[in-house]
Amino acid sequence: MTSSKPAECGGNTLGMWRHISTGHCARTATARTATAMSFGLDAAEDSLRAWLAECDRLNIDPRDPRRKTPAGHLQLPKFVKFHLLHPGSDCDEIFWQDPSTFTPRRGRNGYVDSSGIYPMNTQRLYTSDIPLPEIQFINALIDRKLAQLAQLDITDLSRHRYWRRVRLSAGLPLSVFADKIITPLWGWVRNLHAHAFHDYKGGALFGPKDTNAIDASVHLGKAGYAYIPEEGFSIAHILQKEGDVIGYHYDSGDNWWVDIKLEEIAPRDTSTGAVVVLDGAGGYPPDGESSGTFSWAIQLRKAAQSPAGKRNAVKVLFGATNYQDKNPPLDPLDYDFDLSDLEGMRKAIRDALDSKGSLHYASKKFVTPFAPMDEMNSDSSMLSRLGRTARNMKKGTAVSQTPVPGHGGMFLEEGVKLTRKDKPTNTACANCGTPHDLKACSRCGQRYYCGKDSQRAHWKESHKMICGKSAQK
């Protein structure tokens, strides 16, 4: 890879796998329980008295910026500023370090994820005027990573039960990689959950800007509190050398982990940049049903140990969101969890490429009506669900509501693009998936192509049936 521009990089072969077959893997960091406290006026006065008493006992000026470390040493933080009422002794010793020289800890499988900081401890004492110590520290790490990126020149899986191998362009934007390649490759539901890429070299995170996915708002701390917006960055920014590995964290509530390894860099003059699914093993893991990498591994182990365990695992699988349109087997004991559907993966990616990008600021939500639909669609009700109303959606977009069969009026709600186009810098060829030399269809402007050959092939395959129509596809 010799070019400094991601859009000109050669093709790359990536291996994606999960450690399903190797058993449950837990982080080695010591767990810590934080007591959630709501500081009202009386509680604040009590905290102040306690801290002043501590300062008096130690003969410390209350305005002294030093704080007690978990080991009990009174020490001046090199970067973080603690709240006046916060003694600091319940925080990790990391927050006395300088983020510009901080060496991230290694966690799962020896990788650096979640900025190398875990466990994290939220202090409700802090406000917008004084950010959490975690946020202060991580924002400094983000600034350090952005400075490094600005200087960056981006010129055997058989032991894993679930894996995929795919060839694609290193210039593919991370947002497109997540939305139109990784998600369909694993059979998950697009725009349903949040995601984050973990740069294992230093622990930096990249994720969708302004996502309103429920798991992002409730469980973002599990992914690392804050991440660099993935828009504007490509695969080549975080995978540069053969053998490099990054992490993909999907659904921060259930926690699916995919490790992505750069196996081969093809010369630029021999690469088309097209997305090609080469091989793979294992079926589609369940999306939802409280199943993540580790809990699903437990289900599979139990399935191998007893008929009851296998029946339960099949029940969990076919109760998941991404299996709602699939019929469960007549006999669960005959089901093969390892059955791989390569053609199904290829079709899922083709369908995703032949569609517009997801609107992460209006992600999918399952909604159970608790009132008549006119009340459910009122501005206040929709605002509480989507974070915006139907009337203040961006131009060329709309709110889509799709009934969920067999669930008593439940519907799936999300923001979708109608006439609004993808940005040419943040999409891929609708036919082959390359991000290079894209031009919009001259008739409808709703799909991008890398050249006339790709456009002709896609026209014959499917585009002639929707070209010129305003309906979102």
Automatic annotation (TrEMBL):
The organism's place on the tree of life at top rank: Eukaryota
Protein name: MYND-type domain-containing protein
MYND-type domain boundaries: 429-467
GO molecular function, one term: zinc ion binding
PROSITE patterns in the cross-refs: ZF_MYND_2
SUPFAM superfamilies: HIT/MYND zinc finger-like, MM3350-like
InterPro entries xrefs: MM3350-like_sf, Plasmid_pRiA4b_Orf3-like, Znf_MYND
Source organism: Dichomitus squalens
UniProt-listed Pfam families: PRiA4_ORF3, zf-MYND
Swiss-Prot/TrEMBL keywords: Metal-binding, Zinc, Zinc-finger
Transmembrane spans: none
